[in-house]
Amino acid sequence: MTGAASLAAAGRKVWWYVREVIGDTAYERYVEHLRTHDPEAEAPTRREFERMRMDAGDDPRKGFRCC
Fold first, then answer.
1. Quick one: average pLDDT of 46-58?
2. pLDDT of 6-42, one tens digit each?
3. What CA–CA distances, in Å, run from 52 to 3, 10, 56, 57, 67?
4. CA distance 43 to 61
5. 63 — phi, psi (to 5°)?
6. Phi, psi angles (nearest 5°) of residue 56
7. Is the pTM of this model over 0.70?
8. Are 27 and 43 in contact (CB under 8 A)?
9. What dihedral angle (degrees, nearest 10) is formed by the CA atoms of 54, 57, 60, 65?
């Protein structure tokens, strides 16, 4: 592997890690899960999904949010 290819591979790994940490991949994982378990279900848009996540975080029955 050349220096440029190694640098590009390292960059992709860092980008994957950052996306995982900030939760950016949650929507893709949710849609994949939905397609696997209920292929007939209509997947929400990304905006609808983020709203559902925020609403779930505001639910006092699920405990307190950190921020």
1. 86
2. 999 999 999 999 988 988 888 999 999 999 999 999 9
3. 43, 34, 6, 9, 17
4. 25
5. 95, -170
6. -65, -35
7. no
8. no
9. -130
